[in-house]
Amino acid sequence: FHINELLIQAESIFPRYPKLSQRYMALICEIASRARITLGQEIKRKMCKKCKAYLVFGKSARIRFTGKKRTITCLSCGKIMRYPFLKE
To answer: What distance separates the 2 farthest-apart alpha carbons in the chain?
Structure first.
């Protein structure tokens, strides 16, 4: 699929061109919606739900563990996403 190639490109180009990697993530969403494909959990967790930025912890996102939740904050738009955190 083109989605996997775009994800690899967004990951490799992020350190130099973060805006271009954000555009690649937006293209992934467009392709998935046109083809009616649901994106996997791995891809969804690497993308901001609001601004479609590629999330790299420490660079474009902040992650906090509180109780049973993992809180991810996008540093581009400020969107807060909360996911359950299961200890193994």
So the answer is: 38
Is the separation of the CB atoms in 53 and 37 below 8 Å?
A: no
If one counts every other C-beta atom within 10 angstroms of the C-beta of residue 69, the result is 11
Residue-wise pLDDT for 77-86, tens only, equals: 999 999 998 7
| Number of other residues whose CB lies within 10 A of the CB of residue 83 | 13
Given a contact cutoff of 8 angstroms between Cβ atoms, the answer to whether 55 and 48 are in contact is yes
Q: List, in order, residues 6 or more apart from 67 with CB less than 8 Å away.
A: none
The one-letter amino acid code at 14 reads F
How far apart, in whole angstroms, are the C-alpha atoms of residue 67 and residue 5? 36
